[in-house]
Amino acid sequence: NRVRVAVLHGGRSGEHEVSLKSGRSVIDHLDPERYEVVPVLITPDGRWASGDGEPGGLAHAIGLFEGVDVVFPALHGEFGEDGTVQSLLEMVGVPYVGNGVFAGAAGMDKEFTKKLLVADGLEVADGVVLRAGDETLTPEEIDRLGFPMFVKPARTGSSLGISKVDAEEELAQAVKLAKDFDTKVLVEAAVPGREVDVAVLEHPDGRLEAGPALEIRIDGGHAFFDYEAKYADTTTIFDIPARLDDELREAVEWQALAAFRSLGCRGLLRVDFFLRDGRTPVVNEVNTFPGFTAASQFPQMWAAAGVEFPELLDILVTTALARR
Ligand code: ATP
Ligand code: MG
Ligand code: MG
Ligand code: MG
Q1: Would residue 285 show up in a list of annotated catalytic residues for this protein?
Q2: Could you give the number of structural domains in the chain?
Q3: Over the chain (324 residues), what is each successive 10-residue block's mean pLDDT?
Q4: ipTM for this model
Q5: Within a domain: residue 273?
Q6: Which residues contact 296 (CB under 8 A, 6 or more apart)?
Q7: How far apart, in whole angstroms, are the C-alpha atoms of residue 165 and residue 148?
Q8: Cβ < 6 Å from ligand 1: which residues?
């Protein structure tokens, strides 16, 4: 008997379009011999539809899980990656792939991600949190962080609302943009150096594995890894494995596993690092459900380790079912 997997995609988030792509590739790569796929589309206004059925509200959504063995939330951003959908799945009592309520919420909020990781001894970028009502930084904070700075909404992904700020006169505009995405905004010191991401995977027996690190090399005149460079610019290069000496490779792998444990993750996590001055790992942020198209980092990193997409999905689903 095949396992019935409901693949949630779309979602009520700025990353709706990205999730449509991730969901599509999950649907296409689940082995049809082993899995019966139930595609579940969530519209941008939060209505749920199974297959080509009519979309409905939450009461309808709960009904869609009847007869489903496991849910695969292929959702990015708010109302999907942040623990909210996971909370619904907990209430319904259906097993699901990946991170739970706490890790989702902690990983989505960059303020709290950093606080938790620092408490466990990991290094993060220095920064200031602007809450609702806070207009900008104090002169002391500006001096402390220096330029360039990065201004980002506390809880988005895909670089939405993020700006690099090279001088003080650009700061207000960057904060205003970030506030369009979130009431809470982070202003961080820029960390100069390389950018390297690590994939962590939980096996059905509970063993954690860090995949080969990936280095992002941005070209084409992008000041940083922005939305365009992520999804439109074909000149962005991923080096897998990243060219790291043994010591640095072990350091990022170990820190990625530490971040996974620190946030109470399950199933998977992508940990994004800077290598300050090319040497010291600094955690930038985590993604509790990273991009999942065949060309996305997470599946690419595992493919480079010899774990092809269908096998990767198999591990994720089997781990979710083993947890019961
Ligand atoms: P993702 O799509 O990975 O979820 P995100 O929207 O959560 O992205 P970040 O990863 O925090 O955003 O930042 C996006 C990009 O901005 C980074 O990949 C990096 O290129 C740049 N960046 C962010 N913060 C800093 C910083 N403090 N120093 C240098 N570069 C930064
Ligand atoms: Mg992110
Ligand atoms: Mg993300
Ligand atoms: Mg990132």
Answers
A1: yes
A2: 3
A3: 97 97 98 98 97 92 96 97 98 97 98 98 98 95 98 97 97 97 98 97 98 92 92 90 98 98 98 96 98 96 98 98 89
A4: 0.98
A5: yes
A6: 22, 290
A7: 5
A8: 125, 150, 152, 156-159, 162, 188, 190-191, 195, 224-225, 272, 284-285, 287
